[in-house]
Structures are given as C-alpha cells and as structure tokens.
Automatic annotation (TrEMBL):
Belongs to the AccD/PCCB family. Its EC number is 6.4.1.4. Residues 1-24 are annotated as: Disordered. Pathway: Amino-acid degradation; L-leucine degradation; (S)-3-hydroxy-3-methylglutaryl-CoA from 3-isovaleryl-CoA: step 2/3. InterPro entries: AcCoA_carboxyl_beta (IPR034733), ClpP/crotonase-like_dom_sf (IPR029045), COA_CT_C (IPR011763), COA_CT_N (IPR011762), MCCB/AccD1-like (IPR045190). It comes from the Eukaryota. This is methylcrotonoyl-CoA carboxylase.
Length: 568
C-alpha cells in the first residue's frame, strides 16, 4: 500500500524523538496522585525499548528486508503495464492513470491508495499490476472522494476477476463511508478469456452498476470521466452516473464497437461516429460535458465536485494541528519492535505508544484479562477505542473485549484493532471455562458494533482470533497488514501436524505452500486487505481512514448498535 502525495512537503510524517529517560514520567510512581492536570500524564505510555539491544537490531534488520521487498514490489506494481503499452498510451496524448489522479486531487493532499498489490502473481498467463485498476480515497475540491481509475496499459484496462473485486471494494468503501465516487474510465470491458469469472455471479461485473444505482439513490454522487474506450457493459459506468464527462476524439461509449456492429448489421461506421464525445454530448445525451483532452476533463470533474453542495466541503481535511500532539515515542522504532518471527511476542503497548496522539492511552481493565489490551486514545484528534492483542485470548480477555466494544458502541467511538493473535486458548481447563461461549461474546460484539472499525494486522492473524479481532469478514472500514504479518487458519507446522493425524502426508512442499499462502503479499494480491503498510506509517493510515469515515455525509451516532444475545 502506498501513500501518494501531490506535494513533497505534505509527505513528511510528523515524527518526534522520545524525550530522554530523565524527562519520562514514572507512571507507577504517580499512581494515587491524580489532580486533574496530571490525568494526561498518568495516561502517558512509557517505553522500555532499547534501540541498542541485539534483539531490536535483529528485528530492525529483518523488518528492513521485508519492507524493502515490499517497496520494490510496490514500485513495480505502480509502473503499470509493459513499456510498449505505456508508450502507445502516451503517443495517443493520454495521461497515465496515476498522473490523472495526481492532477485530480487537491495539491498537497494525500491519495490513500487501496490494495496496490492486487493481482500480484495471480494469473499464470499475464502480469496484472495493481489488478489493472487504481483505487483509493483522495480530496477533490475539499471533498473526500473515492477515485477509481482504469489502467489501460494493463491489457487494455480490461476486467480480470481481481479487477472486478477491486472496483467493487472501492465502491464498498464509498458506500460505507458515504463518499462521492469519481470513475476515470479507460477500459475494454470484460477480459473475455475470464468471462465466466467476471460476468454472471452476484459480485461480478453487473454489481458495479447495481452499486452505482444504489449509491445514487442514497445521495452518494457518481461522476464518470470517459477518457478511453467504454465498451459493452462498461458503457453503463457513464450511463449510470449522475454526471458524465467525455474527452472528444478519445473517449468512446458504445454497446458494441465498430467491428461487432459490422458483423451484426453490416453497417460500417467509425468509433468516433458511433460513440464519440461530440455525438454523445450533442445527440444522444449519454454525456453531459465535452472535454478537449485529459487535463480539461479533470478540470471539469473538479468543477462537478465543487457543485455537489457537499456538506463536508467546508470541513477541514484534518483537525487543527493544535488539537493533537504527535506520539512521544518515535514511530520509526516500530521497525525494531515488530518482528518477522511470529513466535516472539510484539509488545503491544510499545506499538500503541507510537500510534496515538501524545502516546496517551487511558487503559481499561489493565489488570484483568491482560492478554487483550483495551483503552481510549486519540489519533489526529479523533477519539478511538483500541483493542490490541498481547498474547493468546483467554475467556477473561474475550469478555473484557466484548465489554469494551459495548462501551465504545454506546458512546459512538470508532474502534481500532491491532491484531497479533495465534488464537483462543485450547485445552480442558479452557473448554470447561466456556472459552467457546466467551469467545463468541467477543465475536458477536465485533460483528454488531455499529461504529467505524479499523484493523491493522501487526503480526499473526490465525484461526478464530481473526474473527474476534475484526478480520475482513467483520466489516472493518479498512484493514491493513504490516509486511511481516501473516494470516491463515494456523501456522504451517501446526497444519502439517494436523494433516498427519488425519493420515495425510505433510511433506515440505505442503509446508512451503502454506507458508507462502499466509504471507502478506499473498493476502494483498487477493484483496483480503486494503494494503500492506510500513509499520511507521500506521498512525498516518489510521488518521486517513478516520478522516474518510468521518468525512462523508456520515454520522456516527452513539448508541446506534443493537447487539444480539450474549451467551452468559
Ligand atoms: N479481453 C482480453 N484481452 C483483451 C481484451 C479483452 N476484451 N481487449 C484487449 N485485450 C488485450 C489485447 O489482446 C492486448 O493484449 P497484448 O498486450 O497481450 O497484445 C491488450 O489487451 C491491449 O489491447 P490492444 O488492442 O493492443 O490495445 P488498444 O489500446 O489499441 O485497444 C481496446 C484497447 C480495449 C480498445 C481494444 O483492445 C478493444 O476494443 N478490445 C475489445 C473490447 C471489447 O469488445 N470488449 C467486450 C467487453 S464485454
């Protein structure tokens, strides 16, 4: 996952070094002394991280390796299609899709790209960088919007199954967060050899237009900019939009292109005559504005957004800087705190201390169910409830998590889950203790909590722990992985052991395959997450996610959540 900025200055992330130990406040020593002005100090997380220790350095080395690999893969994905296709695109005087997005968003704002690793090593017959479509959240004329841009340098911008999935995911982000959609269309429609996997099912191509109709009916604006072909089913993207812009002599909309028309009816017609901008803007009325080139079309799209009369328009893109402070401890140190060896614990308070405003954390039930850390904090001035793993989930930790999620739901406070979980405790004692019903309380609370939820997988995400900690199936607004993270039913060793008990061979090949399938890049290629993020950018991504959740015509109302039956 990448953060693309339209100004270098805006790229800088706020970082502040931790104060020297002499200035750090001894929390325990202060217990009992709580005049109001010291309340914040009492909540301030301290650090025990020693950047000169061998363990820290080894973690940093390993994390550096996986992060560098991720950066290289991301660069490859962001280049788009092969050189030949990009040159052909530019020779047609078209802007490359990422340049279109940069021109579309407000200068100095961030484009929060979703799943740039989509499609990675997914199709044996072809590379489909970023899934052939670029999606994300960006600010246009002060309005936070979801942007969906076809990359026609990748197989003509045609829709592979992963392209459809990524387009639908972007629409889901728009719908949930109530953000206007801008579609930069440049696509040959369905990738025909994959037609059975993109066409008929519920979450296939047709769902794109269904979503457009539903979002429009909910007052979520739909704006299309036709900058290339828009063939067959694809023609419905502009046709279903509230407003459509087309580039003359470049954008084409038709249900069947000239070759098919000739075959079907014998009529010989040029693409421009059949579905060009001039015709659609003056004769058919399929489009509303005619642009002379990409740059002009982008200006028209910005103008359409400025006319939405969108309430968030005047809202600041960030709370004023004076309302929050950066973490006390350096987020770069997360590279020495995280580990690629998921058998080792990741001290989660050290992570929280580098993510939340001022490293302030009001911990809830600190000494009960201690393997789940819960508490209140703020991120860029947005109040959040943090639910974070610090070990295996026991009955007590699960019940505490459910209690805390109820509190946040009651108060309308968004939830941030920091996942590093190998699962719920197993064994006789645990079963007799009713771990299944207590774990179910946590899962039910997560499922029903009707406040924005955000998940960051900082280590392992295994088994039912994935459910209780708001995995993808539990509807987090955004789910990000750190590059060291892994997601799976269980680790490869445990899986091999189980397979052996059921009489199957568990050879090294199986283990290697399972290891590969649990990697973050494997997950991200399939859109099981919204992207892999460098640990030190976690705060920034959560901030952008919170802004997206709060930026639309969206109200988080306290007490909206209706919980089901909790088994006691
Ligand atoms: N399915 C699968 N592959 C397709 C495709 C489709 N619908 N349309 C194009 N491609 C492939 C081409 O074979 C080519 O592959 P290659 O790079 O391996 O040679 C690549 O995409 C680029 O196509 P090309 O025609 O060279 O590029 P272009 O920019 O000149 O034209 C299109 C792009 C999309 C306008 C043109 O290819 C086209 O009209 N395709 C058919 C569109 C169609 O009828 N779709 C039906 C959708 S329901």
């Amino acid at each position: 996952m990448s953060l693309c900025r339209s100004s270098q200055q805006a790229l800088r992330l706020g970082r502040r070094r931790a104060p020297p130990p002499s200035q750090r406040l001894p929390i325990r020593a202060m217990a009992g002394l709580t005049p109001p002005h010291q309340a914040a100090a009492i909540s301030r997380l301290q650090t025990n991280v020693d950047p000169s220790s061998d363990e820290y350095r080894e973690n940093e080395r390993q994390m550096g390796e996986v992060t560098a690999r991720l950066a290289e893969l991301t660069r490859k994905m962001q280049r788009g299609g092969p050189d030949k296709a990009r040159e052909k695109h530019l020779a047609r005087k078209k802007m490359l899709p990422r340049h279109r997005i940069t021109a579309l968003i407000d200068p100095g704002t961030t484009f929060m790209e979703l799943s740039p690793m989509a499609g990675y090593e997914l199709y044996p017959e072809a590379d489909v960088p970023a899934g052939g479509i670029i999606t994300g959240v960006g600010v246009v004329e002060g309005v936070r919007c979801v942007i969906v841009a076809n990359d026609s340098t990748v197989k003509g911008g045609t829709y592979y199954p992963i392209t459809v999935k990524k387009h639908l995911r972007a629409q889901a982000v728009a719908q949930e967060n109530k953000l206007p959609c801008i579609y930069l269309v440049d696509s040959g429609g369905a990738n025909l050899p994959h037609q059975s996997d993109v066409f008929p099912d519920r979450d296939h191509f047709g769902r794109i237009f269904y979503n457009q109709a539903r979002m429009s009916s909910q007052g979520i604006p739909q704006i299309a900019v036709v900058m290339g072909p828009c063939t067959a089913g694809g023609a419905y993207v502009p046709a279903m939009s509230d407003e459509s812009i087309i580039v003359g002599e470049q954008g084409h909309i038709f249900l069947a292109g000239p070759p098919l028309v000739k075959a079907a009816t014998g009529e010989v017609v040029s693409a421009e005559e059949l579905g060009g901008g001039k015709m659609h803007s003056s004769v058919s009325g399929v489009t509303d504005y005619l642009a002379v080139d990409d740059a002009h079309a982008i200006v028209l799209a910005r103008r359409s957004i400025s006319n939405l009369n969108w309430p968030a328009r005047s809202a600041p893109t960030q709370p004023p800087a004076s309302t929050f402070s950066e973490p006390l401890h350096d987020p770069d140190e997360l590279m020495g705190i995280a580990t690629t060896n998921l058998r080792k614990p990741i001290p989660i308070r050290e992570v929280i201390a580098r993510v939340v405003d001022g490293s302030e954390f009001s911990e809830f039930k600190r000494d009960f169910g201690a393997t789940l850390v819960t508490g209140f904090a703020s991120i860029y001035g947005h109040k959040v409830g943090i639910v974070a793993n610090d070990g295996i989930l026991f009955a007590s930790s699960a019940v505490k998590g459910a209690h805390f999620i109820e509190l946040c739901s009651q108060r309308g406070i968004p939830l941030v889950f920091l996942q590093n979980i190998s699962g719920f405790m197993v064994g006789t004692a645990s079963e007799r203790d009713g771990i299944a019903k207590h774990g179910a309380k946590l899962v039910a609370a997560v499922a029903c909590a009707d406040v924005p939820k955000f998940t960051v997988v900082v280590g392992g995400s295994y088994g039912a722990g994935n459910y209780g900690m708001c995995g993808r199936a539990y509807g987090p607004r955004f789910l990000w992985m750190w590059p060291n993270a892994r997601v799976g039913v269980m680790g490869s060793d445990q899986l091999a052991a189980v397979m052996e008990t059921v009489g199957q061979k568990a050879d090294p090949e199986l283990r290697a395959r399972i290891d590969r399938e649990t990697e973050a890049t494997f997950s991200s290629a399939r859109l099981w997450d919204d992207g892999i993020i460098p640990p030190q950018h976690t705060r920034r991504y959560l901030g952008l996610g919170l802004q997206a959740a709060m930026g639309g015509r969206n109200e988080v109302r306290a007490g909206d959540t209706k919980f089901g039956v909790f088994r006691m």
